[in-house]
Amino acid sequence: MIAHIIFRLYANSLFYDKKLLQKVFISKRNVSHYMLKLIVLDVDRTIWSHNDASSLIPPFKKINDDLIIDKCGSRVELNYGLRNFLEHFISLGLYFSISSWNFPENVFELLENFNILKYFSYPVIEPSPNKGLMIKKIVENFRKDNVIISPKEILYIDDRSIHLDEVKRFIGPVNFLRYGIDVVDWNDAICKVESLVSKT
Fold first, then answer.
1. How many structural domains compose the chain?
2. Cα separations (Å) of 184 from 1, 93, 124, 193?
3. Cβ contacts of residue 135 below 8 Å, gap of 6+?
4. What domain range includes position 122?
5. What are the beta bridge partners of residue 179?
6. How far apart are CA 85 and CA 87, in angstroms?
7. Which residues does 178 contact at the CB level (< 8 Å), separation at least 6?
8. Which pTM does this prediction carry?
9. DSSP category for residue 90
10. 3-state DSSP assignment of residue 112
11. pLDDT at 109
12. Helices (H), 92-185
């Protein structure tokens, strides 16, 4: 059993690295006019409705642009307005990334099937609750590409606040919105995030 777990973690790491190299994109964007540069999203109950992507069983079947089911019929639906949210703030030059406590295979496959992986730079998806370290990795990857992002220029969006203290300990005073509490859906989030983006 222990050997099996170790092998799975190793295989997940290889899968993650391969996907990262294949899918990460970065471009020089003019974000000097905005207070935010980077929006980091959780996936479960934030990007989509399902609460644990790691528990899903492939193969996945795409029903429509916003709905996928797994082998057992479990439904994964994109939360309302997500694409509008992503496209709106990317059009303003902001970056998006992902910090997720999951085994990466299912998450990457779902993101690809929903055709939204292309929106995210340096996603970090690991079987670990340490989101502070994950976001630190994201920021360090941007820095390697000469994009310097301070804590106050980061917005972290998650359906739970339990990781926030750790994120602030590793990163600093990031902005935070709790999905489902501070914002009802992603169209609502556009209005809330606009107030954080524009300098006063």
1. 1
2. 42, 24, 25, 13
3. 40, 99, 124, 154, 156, 167, 170, 171, 174
4. 2-197
5. 183
6. 6
7. 157, 158, 159, 160, 161
8. 0.86
9. H
10. helix
11. 98
12. 104-113, 131-144, 164-170
Q: How far apart are CA 55 and CA 39, in angstroms?
A: 26
Contacts of 144 (CB under 8 A, 6+ apart): none
82 three-class SS: helix
Name which of 17, 38, 15 is nearest 26 in CA terms: 38
pLDDT the model gives residue 46:
98
Quote the CA–CA distance of 96 and 27 in Å, as a whole number. Answer: 12
Residue positions counted in the chain: 200
The tokens of 160 are what? 């739970």
Q: What is the pLDDT at residue 34? A: 73
pLDDT digits (tens, 9 = 90+) for 9-46: 434 444 444 444 334 455 556 555 679 999 999 999 99
Which tokens go with 59?
A: 């193969």
Residue 60 corresponds to which tokens in the numbers above?
A: 């996945």
Give Dmax (Cα) for the chain: 56
Q: Could you tell me the CATH number of the domain that includes residue 191?
A: 3.40.50.1000
